Amino acid sequence: MTQSAAAAFSKLPSRTTAARAARALALGLGGAAFLSWYGASALRRAAHPSALTVDQQASISLGAAIAGTAAFTFLNPHVYIDTVMLMGAVGASLPPTERLPFMAGAVMASFAWFASLGFGARFLAPLFSRPGAWRVLDLAIGVMMLTLAASLARGALTN
After folding, report:
1. N or C, where is the chain less crowded by C-beta within 10 Å?
2. In the 3-class helix/strand/coil scheme, how is the chain assigned residue by residue?
3. How does pLDDT run across 24-61, given as a tens digit for each residue?
4. Are 63 and 159 in contact (CB under 8 A)?
């Protein structure tokens, strides 16, 4: 758990320190279990990779593209977790004079990230049309998720 997340978590109302510790243990082990499942799923995909096939002739209307983008954006819980909870917690911890530059930097980084994803996907489509590329990506994801799971479980059990 990061220091800011731990600080925010420790301010939740509880009757005893033991209850707080039990919640932290449950959340830590639950997160480790989820990351372990996700990592194992990636390793299973790596064992039987498939290829990305892109239909170059497919097209959708502008309205359908905007509706799909809006749904993917606003119905995605990660949007709220990242922007409201994580970025809000970090921003709130800064002195008032540093909040505007932090917010501007976060907005610029977000635009750069999503533009890179969009253009990068088009650029990398030929690479990911080969199953071997998916195997490497899934292996990397699996190892990373299992490493994070072990770290999270170790932290939950030692705190």
Report:
1. C
2. CCHHHHHHHHCCCCCCHHHHHHHHHHHHHHHHHHHHHHHHHHHHHHHCCCCCCCCCCCCCCHHHHHHHHHHHHHCCHHHHHHHHHHHHHHHHHCCHHHHHHHHHHHHHHHHHHHHHHHHHHHHHCCHHHCHHHHHHHHHHHHHHHHHHHHHHHHHHHHC
3. 899 899 999 999 999 999 999 999 988 877 776 778 88
4. no
Q: How confident is the model at residue 121 (pLDDT cuts 50, 70, 90)?
A: confident
Over residues 99-125, the mean pLDDT reads: 90
d(CA 120, CA 148): 26
Q: From the CB of residue 149, how many other CB atoms can be counted at a distance below 10 Å? A: 21
Q: What is the pTM of this model?
A: 0.63
Helix pair angle (131-158, 17-47), 10° resolution: 160
CA dihedral 49, 46, 116, 103 (to 10 degrees): 140
Averaged pLDDT, 102-111: 91
